[in-house]
Write a structure and sequence with these properties.
12 helices, 42% helix, elongated, alpha/beta, five-stranded parallel β-sheet
């Protein structure tokens, strides 16, 4: 493996617990070089899953956090001016395609649609990336794979993937784990006891019942781990839940009161 590839390798196994059969499905997709899309609520483990699969497949991983200001040049590359003149600098998508990495575009719908169009030639039989400014047609490395993620719960008709993009990918749906598995994950990642982890999960379950009734999204597994980490550091549970769960998720006074009441029920 080249030095350029090795710098993007994940050296230690990320902690990941399989929820359904997503591991075998992703392995089959990688073997077929089928571009993949992972969909699910924020903080449910999508990014951790991709890190785990990159480690499991022993492939370099290049991740990009997409945003509305991201241009095609940010993904593909651009000419830069230095003391010797101009030189071409590959973007993360181009680097991944050259070295045979998994390229993970996180929250891809945050990017402008004219930016996401550049991935199309990489996601069909062509597996190419036109570098128009450089005058190069890059043929992707045989090991290259493109993976995108997004949260369908946040999308509006103005901020969604085009069908011409969606239909280029296989898709895996993610959600929060079942109760027992989520307790195990929270306890492992934060260091708290399974008893405390169970109380945190119970609070999250109540909040998820409020989705669409004052909350855009329920408390995520990630937020429960944050709360557990504070408790593990000696912060009182009520204060930890206020800081890590209630205050970040809503500014509505009534909704905060409802969540505070849920916290008080279990702590």
């Amino acid at each position: 493996m080249s030095s350029e590839q090795s710098q993007y390798l994940i050296s230690e196994e990320p902690y990941y617990r399989e929820v359904h059969d997503e591991i075998s499905l992703f392995e089959a997709a990688y073997a077929a070089r089928l571009p993949m899309m992972v969909k699910g609520p924020t903080g449910c483990g999508k990014s951790r899953f991709i890190e785990y699969m990159a480690w499991r497949l022993q492939r370099p991983l290049i991740s990009v956090a997409c945003n509305e200001d991201m241009t095609a040049s940010d993904l593909v590359g651009r000419f830069l001016l230095d003391k010797d003149g101009t030189k071409w600098q590959d973007g993360p998508l181009t680097t991944a395609a050259r070295i045979g990495a998994i390229c993970y575009l996180d929250e891809v719908v945050e990017a402008r649609q004219d930016t996401t169009v550049v991935i199309h030639p990489l996601t069909d039989h062509r597996r190419t990336l036109p570098l128009d400014k450089k005058g190069e047609l890059l043929h992707a490395h045989p090991d290259f794979l493109l993976v995108i993620s997004y949260n369908p719960g946040y999308q509006s008709s103005m901020k969604d993937l085009k069908q011409s993009t969606k239909q280029r990918f296989g898709a895996l749906d993610f959600s929060y784990p079942d109760r027992d598995l989520e307790i195990e994950i929270v306890a492992h990642e934060s260091g708290v006891s399974t008893e405390i982890a169970g109380k945190l999960v119970s609070i999250a379950e109540r909040s998820r019942n409020l989705k669409g009734h004052g909350l855009d999204e329920g408390l995520s597994t990630r937020m429960l781990i944050y709360a557990g980490s504070l408790i593990e550091k000696g912060i009182a549970p009520l204060a930890a839940c206020s800081v890590a769960l209630v205050r970040p998720i809503t500014d509505d006074p009534d909704m905060r009161d409802a969540l505070d009441a849920a916290v008080n029920t279990f702590f």
